[in-house]
Structure formats: structure tokens, C-alpha cells
Design a protein that fits this description.
Elements lengths: L2 E5 L4 E6 L4 E5 L13 H23 L3 E13 L7 E13 L3 H15 L1 H6 L4 E10 L5
Parallel strand pairs: 5-6
Antiparallel strand pairs: 1-2, 2-3, 4-5
Helix pairs in contact: 1-2
Protein name: Redox protein
InterPro entries: KH_dom-like_a/b, OsmC/Ohr_fam, OsmC/Ohrsf
Pfam families: OsmC
Length: 142
């Protein structure tokens, strides 16, 4: 896997993934940023949430469960002194589906956290990561 990051002036950088996707990252205004993109540390949280959400949906679908939506809210705390690593991360999953068993969602979240989500396992080396979830029944007529 590869990525390239090119300075775009000020505190802005353009990142390009190996698959050709582009993301703009920018720093805060007090460091020369113009708020043109997410901060690099925000990108880590976005990557964590995306990695885990992908796992949860995939695990549930492989179990032949009807998933109609999956959202993950990720909140984090950072160390006060450099390096300002994440020290605590909480992930709240909101999984929607037709007759979706609570136990299946719990299992999918656990498997993602403990076995499949590389980002979670990597960030878990410096941060305490906690999880909770809610199961929501699909609204008919959607």
C-alpha cells in the first residue's frame, strides 16, 4: 500500500492514495492553515470509523442479516503534551436493519475491534478504545 503527500502551501497538503483518490488536509489557522480540509489526526479517526464500519456491515451481511444503515460516531481525547497521541477513543455504532438481532451486532462490533480492524488494533496500542452500539429497526416505506 502506498500514498503520496504533496505540500499545497501554508499548512495544506494534498494526499493521493495508491488507488488514485485525493484528500486535502489542512492545519489550523494559527499554524498557517485555511481550514480547506480535515486535520491529519481527524483523518486517523475517520479511517478508524470507516475501517470498523466496513467490518461490522460485512460481518453482518455474511451472517445473512439485513443491514440497511450503519453509522459510527467516534470521539477522542488526546495527550496534552507532544506527541499528542490519542489516549481515549469511544466508538458508538448505530446499526439499522430488518429483524437485526442484538447479539449479531454485538458480535460484529467485537470481532471488528478485536480481530479485523487494523486501525483499531493499531490505535489501541496508545489509546483506550471503548465501544457501544444501538440496534434500530428499519422504518418501513423507506
Amino acid at each position: 500500500m502506498r500514498a503520496s503527500i504533496k505540500w499545497a502551501g501554508g499548512a495544506s497538503f494534498e494526499a493521493r492514495s495508491e488507488t488514485g483518490h485525493t484528500v486535502i488536509m489542512d492545519g489550523p489557522p494559527d499554524m498557517g492553515g485555511e481550514n480547506r480540509g480535515a486535520r491529519p489526526m481527524e483523518m486517523l479517526l475517520v479511517g478508524l470509523g470507516g475501517c470498523s464500519a466496513f467490518d461490522v456491515v460485512h460481518i453482518l451481511q455474511r451472517g445473512r442479516h439485513s443491514v440497511t444503515d450503519c453509522q459510527v460516531e467516534v470521539t477522542a481525547e488526546r495527550a496534552e503534551e507532544p506527541p499528542k497521541v490519542f489516549t481515549r477513543i469511544h466508538m458508538h455504532y448505530r446499526v439499522e436493519g430488518d429483524n437485526l438481532p442484538d447479539a449479531a451486532v454485538k458480535r460484529a462490533v467485537s470481532l471488528s475491534a478485536e480481530k479485523y480492524c487494523s486501525a483499531s488494533i493499531m490505535l489501541g496500542k496508545t489509546a483506550e478504545i471503548t465501544h457501544d452500539y444501538e440496534v434500530v429497526a428499519t422504518v418501513t416505506g423507506r
